[in-house]
Structure formats: structure tokens, C-alpha cells
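Can anyone check this?
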Amino acid sequence: MNKPFDAIVIGAGAMGSAAAYYLSARGERVLLLEQFELDHRMGSSYGYSRIIRYTYHDLEYVELMKDTLPLWLALEEELGETLYFKTGGIDFGPRIDERMQATIKSVAKGAISHELISGEVARERFPQFQFPDDFIVLYQPDSGFIAASQALRGHIKLARRLGAVVKARSPVEDIRIGSDNVEVAAAGVNYSAGRLIVTAGSWAKTLLGKTGLDLPLTILRCQLNFMAPDDLRPFTAERCPVWIAHVSGQYPESVYGIPSHDGSGFKIAFHGGPAVARHADIDYSADASNLEALRPFMRAHIPGIAAAPARERRICLYTATPDEHFIVDAHPEHAHVAIGAGFSGHGFKFSTMIGKMLADIALDGGTPHNDRLFKISRFPS
């Protein structure tokens, strides 16, 4: 059975749900396909929260956030829900850390309000944390978190309200691209459309291979830990900032966290994890070793949770590019196919903007937002 649409979006995660919304808002007849249940736990988008921040070592992301935050606020108004929780945020690390210094320079160059605080002063201001005297702390008041699953479901809710058709449990079996159309076979049904957007997360590499495109995408298996100390009050969103520790020279990766929200527990995780060749090889069971590897960091910098049990531990997938910059671009051989991939563990905060950019690319051939870092042409062909 053939079902004509203006645009098909493959993957109903953070980026795909947003793309479906922005396409629908422009009057397009949209089909959104998801291989699992909506808001599933097998990929990258599910969960209580994701950090939103201006504090980036690349100025392009600072500038992109200036465009992104108003979209989140507009989405909240459209939904009548709160998605953005403003807690303030701290980046901290040794004064000599290159990433720390680059972040400070980008925030200053982008004219973003911030404070630089010594370790001694920061210990008084943020008593949940311990900072050595040789650390510097960057405080940015607009940082916070996005309610992740709620935002994903919100984009889908609005897209459906505007007429989008959403099909869960519809894994894509084949993609055929014509000169001005696409055909997608999913769960035994053939669909056609004038345009295609692929936002398939860690499945993007395999799916895009069906279109003759081989992107350098690597799946990383990452673990999220939600701590439950006896006294959780100091670690809640009302009292604690989101945070990023630039300490990768001392630990396997940099470390980040988000305060407890709606009973989630205090989130702490390494930014990254081991590479996985195939989805069939992914073990979604949490590792005790991952949490134990974080204990020395907790004892040194967040002693109030150092001995606490985890309320929950969960696996989350990153899909990483070699340079950790996103892919948001048209297919190099098919202008009516747009691709959002490789968000490398730091894309969710931009997801509503990425959805808009992908809709722009699919419908207009380009976007007015700065996508210089996100071009496929940066990779060797």
C-alpha cells in the first residue's frame, strides 16, 4: 500500500520529533517513523533531563544557543508546559586546563553573562562541591536542564496536532531515492514522499548506507548514574547547579552531572564510554565498575554523594563523529534528503533548533542558522 506524504522523518528521538514538528508547522504532510516504542530507552533521547548551557569551548555553539533558547521558550508556551529548568551551571577544572580556558574565552567573546570564581570562594557558594585552590570555576546563570522525555513527547504532541502521522514499531527495511521523491519500506508497508529526513541516532550509519553514504559514526555505550544520598535536599534542582568538570587528565573522561528533579536522583556520568561495533553487541545492563570508577571523583569533589547508592543506573548511547561536531546537512547526492546525525553526546540541548534546521534544509535547501561546523563535506569521501 502506497501512502503519499510531503516528508518522511525516520527516527522519533529528540531530533526527529523536533523535525516532524517544524515540518508540520510549515504545512507539510509528515510521516514520522520509529522502530521502537515512542520515547524508548534503547537510544539517546530518553530520560529525566539533559543539560542546557552556553558554556562551550567553540564559539559557534555559544552563538547557536542564542538562537536555540528562544525556541525552547516558544515551545513551552505552545505546549503550556515547563521544559527548561534554570538552575545556573558551573564548569570547573584546573586553571591550566585547555578546554576550561577555551570555554572561558568563548563565553566572553560571545558576550554571555558569567562569573569567574576562585576555588576558595566557590566552596562557600556551592557547598555541595569541593574545589582545589588551583581550580577555577565558571558560573553561568542561564544554564539548567531540559526535561528530556517530556520535550520529545511535546514535539510529537504538537506535530500530531498539526496533522503529522506517527508510526511506532515501524522499523525501516529499505530506502529508495528517486530524482524528486523517496520511497521507504517500514514494517511491511511502503510509503512515499517528496522529501526525507534521517534522524536515526546510532542506527543512522546503517540506514544511510542504503543510500550510498558511509559516514564516520561510532556508537559509544555510556552509563548514567542517579545517586540517592540519605539527604538529597542539597542536590536538588532548587539548590544545586548543573555542572561539568574538566578533569579528563585525571579520570577516563570529563565528568558531568544534573541535580535531582522530580525524584530522579543526582545524575553523574562520564562524558563518553567504550565503542561498540554493532547494536547486537550492546549490553543494556548497567555496570557496577562504571559507578566505582566515579567514586574517586565523588570523594574528591562531591563528598556528600561519594558513599551513596545509585537509585538508578541506565545505559545511553552516544553516536560520535571524529571531531564531535554534529552532522546537519543535505545528502551530498540527493538534495531532497536531509541528515541529522553524530550528535556526540552534546546535542539534546539544541534538538529543537536542529529540528528547525533540518526542516529548513529539506524544504529550502539551506538554513539561516550557522551550520558551518556540521557539513558532511568535512569528512574524506
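Reply from J.R.: I decoded it. The mean pLDDT is 96.
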